[in-house]
Amino acid sequence: MSHGDVILRFQNVTFEYTEDRLLLDDASFSVREGAKVTIMGQNGAGKSTIFKLITGEIKPKTGSVNTTNNASVAIAQQVMPETAMDKTITEYFIEAFTEKKYDLDKRIKEILEVVNLQVSHEKHVRDLSGGQKARLLLAFALIQEPDILLLDEPTNNLDAEGIFHLTYFLQAYEKTVIVISHDTEFLNSFTDGVLHLDVFTGKVNQYVGDYYSVVENIAAQIERDRMKNARLQKEILDRKEKVNFFANKGGKMRKLASKLRGEIEEAEDNKVDTLREDRTLRGFTIEPQEWKEDVVVITRIAALKNHKIVEKDINIKLRRGHKMIIEGPNGIGKSTFLKSLAEGAHAGAQIMPGVKVGYYRQDFSGLDYDQSGYQALASMMDMPDNETIYAVGAHFLLKSETLKQPIRTYSEGQKGLLCYAQFVLQEPGLLIMDEPTNHINFRHLPVIAEALAEYEGTLIMVSHVPEFVSKIKFTAELDLSKC
Q1: Does residue 272 carry a pLDDT above 70?
Q2: Which of 119, 295, 393, 470 would bridge with 458, disulfide CB 3.0–4.6 Å?
Q3: Would you say the pTM of this structure is higher than 0.85?
Q4: C-alpha span between 186 and 153 (Å, rounded)
């Protein structure tokens, strides 16, 4: 696929949040006008940092980040800012422009149609569902008609219809798009290039091709590099044995030993830094709280249909071992139900007193970003101990130095893994999971699905990922669209 001139260039960029956490090391790459590029890499490799460098939110330690011809940039963020929550839809979109737009209502109407969001312009952002907020974040970026569109996990919280609309739009979008996502099917449908960030080296490699082809190329490159290094290592060991033998001899043998030492140094220099595949989460178990009575009792539910609240009397009692999936399109009230249930604010649903609740919020608003990861894990234990906390953190790929850092420095993927580490230490009687695949590397999803399938407590889940849901045997279904 042909593209225009270079619109974005990273030149020898180095960046670090702390002296012991180098994210980018002499990174250089360019993106052309009209390109559709995916950023991939391990959790914490710096994918969102690349976006912050492009928008100018942060500056590189060394090197430069340049856009050509004053190219405009807009980003569809992962999480709705708290400062936007009390704004109406109209007030929210006013912030997208530096100058007053006299045709703003018309622009809002058109862009909401693009993202397939039907909502009153006077409605407050806080009152939208997670899926509606995801569409609004996307619309906020699109209404600016940027030359470079940055999408950070854009399919999170979107149902199948929402993902279809987004994919169709991006395929037709003529300007530059750079995407971070763990949704492989979505990525493969429209991207034509990949920037691969390596968390171990801080390097960025650029590849051309659709997502699946690039993933195969990277795997093949890793194998080639491993084989080359194995061959060189064998030659090095062989020459070292000969050096040890010839070094104790006289005359020409010592010269031969000297020559072999030179060949060893050359072989060491010829070794390549192999890309390391993202570590996959090892299996884990969430032990449940002992509980013999009802865990959750639901007598009444509500759903939002055609901008009106519709209520229905039901009779659902969930006990230990029961698993319930909540279904319905974006905006019908699934996340609202989970939130009110978890907070004890739902008039028709009650968690029995004494039940320990683990709540995976799709936006991680339950985490205190000023806490360290260590503190977040310690808060789950009656008697915290270092050995257990660091061992559980390591199991979820959170190293000791990472656990010492504030949660606000974590990538979204690391925040997700931290939540699962909390559940392991908490041993909850009830797990409330609102989009539990959000921000999680696709390599980890089968492991997490297995852990939830084997969880012997009570589980209530909302998820728009059919493949993930299919791995868990649900004993009950609550479809709000039938309310």
Answers
A1: no
A2: 295
A3: no
A4: 11
